[in-house]
């Protein structure tokens, strides 16, 4: 079996058959793991699986109510990936697991409260699942082609200090940092179980000399949170927030995350290549209509 680093980039799983060894080893090593895949990679195997109805479980009515065919498939595959990931680290058949949702929309497993924390994000064809046995976890993802207007959204997205620092950056660096900040705040508020009910302007981040993110609040409670951001499939930012009071944040796997922004700045055109509006979050601020990017929190 390959050596798996204590933490690091999300692990790619190409389908229900895995490979799951690295995921399980990562989970055993640091108590959490993040998986990424695309719903297209899972589609054929899942649709041919006679247990698909059982895998969807209580989510099946919601699946059937989703109007667009692509939306239904993305919804179904995200739940299948989540159950398979949880089943792999728990050494349990995915069909034996039952997903429920907390009041804030956060997924959880019935019968495993306090033993396993889950988070799910998906955008376009990408699906990201995080599992943790050491405390709350949250993930978020955005395509680097997503246009996010700093000028239009900074009052809702940023603390005054963040907005000040971002405004002072060159345009390409500002775009990369703002998109990364967006995903970090979504991941953190999802880990808290608050999701979009908490205004992002009330959550502040700071950056160390290596470009690693931390909460601006330097209280002991804030220092128990760690963050990382990675570029996967050369197209998607994936940010993770996790809480682990017994873990040394200096070894949290966020090393070199400033390189993510460097890579985006190396080809700034993708940040403005399409006319797509910002992610669905704008719906909650009254700034526009949803764009069909259902997250499944």
Describe what this molecule looks like in 3D:
The chain is α+β, with helices and mostly antiparallel strands. It has two domains: 11-139, Ribosomal Protein L22, Chain A (Alpha-Beta Complex); 145-285, Ribosomal Protein L22, Chain A (Alpha-Beta Complex), CATH 3.90.470. The chain has ten helices and eleven strands. The strands form four sheets. It has a four-stranded mixed beta sheet with strand order 1-2-6-5. The protein has a three-stranded antiparallel beta sheet with strand order 7-11-10. The protein has a two-stranded antiparallel ribbon with strand order 3-4. A hairpin with a 5-residue loop joins β8 and β9 (213-215). α8 (171-191) crosses α10. The radius of gyration is 18 Å and the shape is globular. The two termini are 33 Å apart. Residues 1-6, 248-256 and 268-297 have low confidence and may be disordered.
């Amino acid at each position: 079996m390959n050596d798996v680093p204590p933490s690091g980039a999300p692990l790619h799983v190409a389908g229900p058959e895995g490979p799951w060894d690295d995921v399980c080893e990562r989970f055993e090593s640091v108590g959490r793991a993040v998986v990424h895949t695309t719903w297209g990679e899972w589609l054929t195997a899942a649709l041919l699986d006679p247990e698909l109805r059982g895998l969807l479980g209580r989510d099946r009515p919601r699946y059937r109510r989703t109007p667009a065919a692509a939306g239904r498939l993305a919804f179904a595959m995200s739940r299948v990936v989540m159950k398979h990931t949880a089943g792999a680290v728990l050494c349990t058949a995915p069909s034996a697991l039952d997903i429920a949702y907390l009041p804030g929309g956060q997924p959880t497993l019935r019968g495993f409260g306090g033993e396993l924390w889950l988070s799910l994000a998906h955008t376009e064809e990408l699906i990201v699942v995080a599992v943790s046995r050491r405390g709350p976890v949250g993930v978020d993802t955005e395509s680097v082609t997503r246009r996010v207007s700093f000028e239009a959204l900074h009052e809702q997205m940023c603390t005054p200090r963040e907005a000040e620092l971002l405004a002072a950056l060159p345009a390409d660096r500002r775009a990369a940092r703002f998109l990364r900040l967006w995903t970090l705040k979504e991941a953190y508020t999802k880990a808290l179980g608050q999701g979009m009910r908490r205004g992002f302007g009330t959550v502040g981040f700071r950056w160390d000399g290596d470009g690693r993110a931390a909460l601006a609040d330097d209280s002991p409670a804030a220092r128990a949170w760690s963050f990382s951001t990675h570029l996967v499939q050369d197209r998607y930012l994936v940010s993770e927030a996790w809480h682990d009071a017994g873990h040394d944040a200096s070894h949290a796997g966020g090393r070199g995350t400033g390189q993510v922004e460097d890579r985006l700045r190396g080809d700034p055109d993708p940040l403005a290549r399409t006319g797509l509006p910002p992610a669905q979050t704008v719906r909650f601020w009254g700034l526009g209509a949803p764009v069909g990017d259902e997250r499944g929190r």
